[in-house]
Each structure stands twice: as structure tokens, then as C-alpha cells.
Amino acid sequence: MFFLKELPTRETLERYHRRFPGMRPEVVMEALVLMKQGSLLIRRMDEYFAAHGLSQLRYLALVVIDREPDREEMTVTELASKLDVSKPVMTRTLKSLVDDGFLAVAADETDRRAKRVRLTGPGRDKLEAILPGYYETIQAAMQGLESDHA
């Protein structure tokens, strides 16, 4: 998260530039604006997912499985490799999604030690219900970012 509510002024950045000539004020300002907008978007997304009984990670687990065009399932290891979380966090997340009926887990037929996960009907329904608002939230944030640069 980025916790700075008020970004530094151009004058402030120019003062730092005089002290640290390698610092480019326009680049730093652009980065700060991006960090602030990104943080605001993450907060909005967290609120949006919470209102729909999900977290960002629970949503990502569902959508990563769903976005595979030619597959309906993947191993837990494959899913974990696509998300930046520890194995215990992944395990707890998958358990909660299974408990809620959004995912089903089965043993891999070729490797009994491996587990395969797939979306259930309710899991697909959940994604169908939240994806429109998810994209609207992203688009609204981008419009705000574009107007900041206009």
C-alpha cells in the first residue's frame, strides 16, 4: 500500500533535485502518481471483493483457473506458481474456496500425490456475477488516472 495522501509539490521535488542531481523530478512525480493510483485501486478492489464474499486472493485463484482457454482444471502446484503466495496461504485459500463450493479438488490420475482443482458451477456463477463490476472498477480508476495526466 501507498500511504501518502498528499503528493509532494513540483517545488519540493525541485528542491530535492538540487540536493540530489541524479533525481529526475518528472519521473519521480509520475511514479508517485502511479503508486497512489495503484494503492487506491487495490483498496477499491478489496472493498469490491469483500462485498461479494471474496478476497483478492480468492478471486485470483478462481480467475486464474477460469482464464485457461483449453483447460478446465489445473494442479494445485500450477495454480500456486501463478500466484505470489506461500504454500500454506495457498492451501488455506483453496480450502476456503472448496468449503464455499466454488472449487472442487480431486487426485491427479497420473500422480496420486498431486491434486487437481477446477471451478464448480457456483464458482463459475460467482465469477460471472463479479467480473462486470471488477472491470468497471478498473476502468473507473484508469479514467481517473487519465484525467490526472490531462
TrEMBL record:
InterPro entries: ArsR-like_HTH, HTH_MarR-typ, MarR/SlyA-like, WH-like_DNA-bd_sf, WH_DNA-bd_sf. Signal peptide: none annotated. GO terms for molecular function: DNA-binding transcription factor activity. Pfam families: MarR_2. Residues 24-150 form the HTH marR-type domain. GO terms for biological process: response to stress. PROSITE patterns: HTH_MARR_2. This is Regulatory protein MarR. It comes from Pseudodesulfovibrio mercurii.
